[in-house]
Amino acid sequence: MAAMVAEAAATATTTGGRYALLMAAHDSEYVLKKYGGYLHVFVAAFGDAGETWDLYRAIDGELPAPGELECYDGFVISGSPHDAYADDLWILRLCLLVRALHGMRKRVLGVCFGHQVICRALGGRVGKARAGWDVGVREVAIAEEPALPPHRFLDALRERDQLPTRAKITEVHQDEVWEVPEGAEVLASSDKTDVEMFCVGEHVLGIQGHPEYTKDILLSLVDRLLAAGSISIPFAEAVKRQLETTAPDREFWLKLCKSFLKARES
Questions:
Q1: Is 112 one of the catalytic residues?
Q2: Is 71 labeled as catalytic in the residue annotation?
């Protein structure tokens, strides 16, 4: 099945890399109306001029064919309202794809559900968040040396003094990573979630939060969760009050994700 394509540049000329967005959720009415779909949200967040981004709706069973994998410089797996530990066919197929990409040492970035499904696919454990729903802006602690070995995508930020010890990120999740895969390194944690970010080598990165979310997307999600009965009115009101005075360090997280996706093997 053909993928939807978005040019990160204003022209049709492709001079940059090629990336695949594996969507594990359907576009909300709000995101479709405001942004034209999540593909455009991710391209605006992680894309650069001259790149090509292809959309595969993994939730509908659409994935790149084995023969197409080599042509991509990186893959991004989105968030989802579904559980990464469920046995829906499309989730199992996505796990198989992650294992194949890991074997090829292709760059794979997972956010929220994507973070969790990568963990599951590579042998880690995921489940319900022990502390319940986490919605809003949360500060996470970035691991420091010597606990954190050098990584090219982090070193690039260090060299520009853009790697803080703590950073705030947007969170919307009720599941979490319980145990990272063998060989993985935990890169960040918070007072509510032990594994906010992990990596496997230089080619796999999982982030529990949502670097791509804007404030308005989060507020729309809060309203949807409230309408669905997933969160209470007091909970939703507390999140909205927090957002009046607290913002995520979005610029840092976007730089980190880009540094990871665009890093080149030496």
A1: yes
A2: no
Question: How do strand 185-189 and strand 197-200 relate by DSSP bridges?
Answer: antiparallel
57's enclosing H/E stretch is: none
Question: C-alpha angle 37/213/126, rounded to 5°?
Answer: 100
Reading the chain (266 residues) residue by residue, the pLDDT tens digits are 556 666 553 333 345 899 999 999 999 999 999 999 999 999 999 999 999 999 999 999 999 999 999 999 999 999 999 999 999 999 999 999 999 999 999 999 999 999 999 999 999 999 999 999 999 999 999 987 656 667 888 888 888 888 899 999 999 999 999 999 999 999 999 999 999 999 999 999 999 999 999 999 999 999 999 999 999 999 999 999 999 999 999 999 999 999 999 986 53
CA dihedral sign of residues 83, 85, 87, 91: positive
Q: Which of 119, 173, 210, 257 is catalytic?
A: 210
Q: How far is CA 143 from the centre of its chain?
A: 19
Catalytic pick from 51, 112, 173, 257?
Answer: 112
Count of Cβ atoms closer than 10 Å to residue 190 Cβ: 20
Cβ atoms of 116 and 176 within 8 Å: the answer is: yes
Taking the model in full, what pTM does it have?
Answer: 0.93
> Is 210 a residue of the active site?
yes
Listed in sequence order, the residues at least 6 apart from 85 whose beta carbon sits closer than 8 Å to its beta carbon are: 116, 120, 126, 127, 175
250-262 and 152-159 helices cross at what angle (nearest 10)? 130
